[in-house]
Write a structure and sequence with these properties.
It is a single chain. The chain has 188 residues and is of the alpha/beta class. 39% of the residues lie in helices and 20% in strands. The protein has one domain: Glutaredoxin (3-Layer(aba) Sandwich), CATH 3.40.30.10. The chain is built from 6 helices and 9 strands; from the N terminus they run H-E-E-E-H-H-E-H-E-H-E-E-E-E-H. The strands form 3 sheets. Strands 5-4-3-8-9 form a 5-stranded mixed sheet. The longest helix is centred in the N-terminal third of the chain and has 22 residues.
Length: 188
């Protein structure tokens, strides 16, 4: 009986934490917000920094867990449509709190042609307001950012349908690039 009561209390605390997290004010994600820096290892142990992508567009997507149905669908869509994003001169990076070994297995199993960065303490996910910490367990929330070549957040996607998300990102990226080209001063 005591075990049942403790289990119920644990579930109640998890639900309450999730509700409080969803109600809290998030970081402002505007077109002029500087993207938080990071230095995280990928599935091969190579460290990636935000500055490594300076001068080009970056699609940075956070996802909860390797090899789960929604995360696999999303990663495979990025894999299948990577050519579209590369034509737009955009790099793709996935980030979760899973460890390097988990990322390596996931990337190998689904032949993912982009880095999966390991954020085991969740600091980078938290900096992007994309960490759900339930005390006992934490994971990255499904959220995507387009970071402009100047290191500023150009777009943020909170509501994500893994099946059509890459097309939505590509449309937004095209529009952002069009706007950026129009804002350039004329060549003399």
């Amino acid at each position: 009986m005591l075990k049942l009561m403790l289990g119920g209390l644990a579930v109640l605390l998890l639900v309450a934490s999730a509700v409080l997290w969803m109600l809290r004010p998030g970081m402002p994600r505007t077109e002029s917000s500087a993207a938080p820096g990071f230095a995280l290892p990928d599935q091969n142990g190579q460290t990636h920094r935000l500055g490594d992508y300076a001068g080009r567009w970056l699609v940075l997507y956070f996802y909860p867990r390797d090899d789960t149905p929604g995360c696999t669908r999303e990663a495979c869509r990025f894999r299948d449509d990577i050519g579209i994003l590369r034509e737009l001169d955009a790099a793709v990076i996935g980030i979760s709190v899973d460890d390097i070994r988990s990322h390596a297995n996931f990337a190998h199993k689904y032949q993912l042609p982009f880095p999966l960065l390991s954020d085991p303490d969740g600091q980078t996910a938290a900096a992007y307001d994309s960490l759900l910490n339930l005390g006992v367990v934490c994971f990255a929330c499904r959220r995507t950012f387009i970071i402009a070549p100047d290191g500023r957040i150009a777009a943020c996607f909170d509501k994500i349908d893994p099946a059509g998300h890459v097309q939505e990102v590509a449309r937004t990226l095209r529009a952002l690039q069009r706007t950026a080209r129009q804002a350039l001063p004329p060549v003399k």
